[in-house]
Specification:
By secondary structure, the protein is mostly beta strands. It folds into two domains: 107 residues, no CATH class; 362 residues, Neuraminidase, CATH 2.120.10. It has eight helices and 32 strands. It has a five-stranded antiparallel sheet, with no helix packed on it. Strands 6-7-8-9-27 form a five-stranded antiparallel sheet, with no helix packed on it. Strands 22-23-24-25-29 form a five-stranded antiparallel sheet, with no helix packed on it. Strand 20 and strand 21 form a beta hairpin. Helix 2 crosses helix 5. The N terminus and C terminus are likely disordered. InterPro entries: F-box-assoc_dom_typ1, F-box-assoc_interact_dom, F-box-like_dom_sf, F-box_dom, Gal_Oxase/kelch_b-propeller, SCF_F-box_component. This is F-box domain-containing protein. Pfam families: F-box, FBA_1.
């Protein structure tokens, strides 16, 4: 490491020893920048680095805890993949966060434990949906509570349901009203088991008020709520009906009204039966829906201009699929990489990647488990429940990030690829994301990962964090020049961009 690099990774508060005098403390030069410029710099950092920056100094903690900074960071936050292993002993309460590098050539997988030791029940919890980096969690049939949490900050609140017994056909969804600057939980349910009336009711819980209130009737059969379907202040879903649906159902959190959105023009009466196999969600900041033409092909339609029927375009065509005879496979698009490949969840069993040019589907070996799992696009944020919840008690837990960087490796889905036996730092051998040894039956040349190269949670020193921020110029400029004065460079670059 040359002299310039050693200087860059020093702690931002330097101590200069002068003979026969007390140590002279030099101020952090990055703090001399305008607050707006500092916010622009910090908002471009990965969520993991931001989380660690909170422990650097009080000023950084103040900056990162500012609700205005949380809004800016959310607007720039990169989409990650949130993974939840389906019930297998204690695995069902553990969430994993996978960060996908922007160039699509590497994956960085970080373990994120959300397993409170005493506050949450020991029974299984299923995550229902996400909104602005917050998760809405609901317990199993034996637990009637609703939990809203920020897994990045380790904060969660417990919401008591309006009734002691879980109502028939209940579903829940978390959303945000930009007009009122409030987060709300929607519950739709059928009032009584013995009733023959086909109607449903809806109630709203505004976080911070501590109370539920009725908003009248709700559409029937609204139980198929996708995890990643909050966009433009509304939730979106296809209702589960025997004959399918010709409309996309919505709930707007500003007006607190149910509504519908039109599907693409090609959507015919005979196509309604396929809506129970379709998927709807958010991809690249736009609403998408999957339309199955047959069992070996489906199209991904994207609504470029929200609410405008004519803006639906067929953006992706996924073909050459080979499902088992007499069955249908399920796909959940999550991330579109810069090279045009699409990362998708396949049958709750694998994360696969589709190459549009070659028209082939390949399995990603960076994630493999012995059990099924849920995986979905998730945008992490620093939205703190402290600034949201006023009438609820906030519980906290300490979280650990154990990062791994690994190269993307593929194998054809028709070839057996074995499994990963994984060991995460500080844990027992378990069904984890990152591999110490990979048994590759296909012999595709996948790289082995050595867990010893990881660093302990919160083990990044102040100087390394400072170097990471100064190193941002590499992503803002194609030049490989050596920057002699990083602060002046950051001033010039950020001011020009903003």
């Amino acid at each position: 490491m040359n002299g310039r690099k050693r200087a860059a990774v020093k702690a931002s508060t330097s101590i200069v020893h002068v003979p026969n005098q007390e140590a002279l403390v030099l101020p952090c030069r990055i703090l001399q920048l305008p607050r707006r410029t500092i916010y622009e710099i910090l908002s471009r950092l990965p969520i993991k680095t931001l989380f660690q920056c909170r422990s650097v100094c009080k000023r950084f903690l103040c900056f990162i805890s500012d609700p205005e900074f949380a809004k800016l960071q959310l607007s720039k936050s990169q989409v990650c993949i949130l993974i939840k292993t389906l019930p297998l002993q204690n695995a069902s309460k553990r969430l994993q966060l996978a960060h996908v590098e922007a160039n699509g050539s590497t994956f960085e997988v970080s373990k994120l434990n959300f397993t409170p030791k005493s506050n949450l029940p020991t029974i299984d919890i299923s995550h229902m949906n996400a909104c602005n980096g917050l998760l809405c969690l609901v317990g199993s049939e034996k637990d009637y509570n609703i939990y809203v949490c920020n897994p990045i900050l380790g904060e969660f609140i417990t919401i008591q349901p309006p009734y002691k017994d879980r109502q028939r056909g209940s579903f829940w969804g978390l959303g945000y009203s930009a007009m009122m600057n409030q987060y709300k939980v929607l519950q739709s349910y059928y009032p009584a088991m013995e009733s023959n009336n086909r109607y449903a009711m809806a109630e709203i819980y505004t976080i911070g008020t501590g109370t539920w209130r009725s908003i009248g009737s709700a559409p029937i059969d609204t139980v198929a709520l996708p995890f990643n379907a909050f966009l433009n202040g509304a939730l979106h879903w296809f209702p589960c009906t025997p004959n399918g649906s010709e409309f996309i159902h919505t709930f707007d959190f500003d007006s607190e009204k149910f509504g519908t959105l039109p599907p693409p023009d090609h959507f015919r009466e005979t196509d309604k039966k396929f809506t129970n196999y379709s998927r709807i969600g958010v991809l690249g900041g736009c609403l998408f829906m999957i339309y199955f033409t047959n069992s070996t092909r489906f199209d991904i339609w994207v609504m470029k201009d929200y609410g405008v029927k004519e803006s639906w375009i067929k953006q992706f065509v996924i073909e050459n699929l080979y499902p088992k005879q007499g069955s249908w496979d399920f796909y959940e698009p999550m991330v579109v990489l810069n090279n045009g490949e699409i990362l998708m969840l396949f049958n709750n069993d694998a994360v696969v990647c589709y190459n549009q040019k070659r028209k082939n589907l390949r399995g990603t070996k960076f994630f493999r488990t012995r059990s099924q799992f849920d995986a979905t696009a998730f945008t992490p944020s620093l939205v703190s429940l402290t600034n949201v919840a006023k009438g609820e008690q906030i519980s906290r837990q300490s979280l650990k990030f154990v990062p791994y960087s690994m190269y993307q490796a593929y194998s054809d889905l028709s070839v057996s690829v074995g499994y990963w036996q994984c060991r995460m730092q500080g844990t027992k051998d378990y069904d984890k994301l990152c591999t110490e040894e990979f048994q590759d039956c296909a012999d595709c040349g996948a790289l082995l990962v050595n867990p010893s190269c990881s660093f302990p949670a919160f083990g990044v020193p102040y100087g390394a964090v400072t170097y990471h921020m100064y190193g941002l110029y590499q992503s803002w400029s194609c030049s490989s020049e050596i920057v002699s004065d990083p602060v002046e460079y950051v001033k010039k670059t950020v001011i020009e961009e903003t």
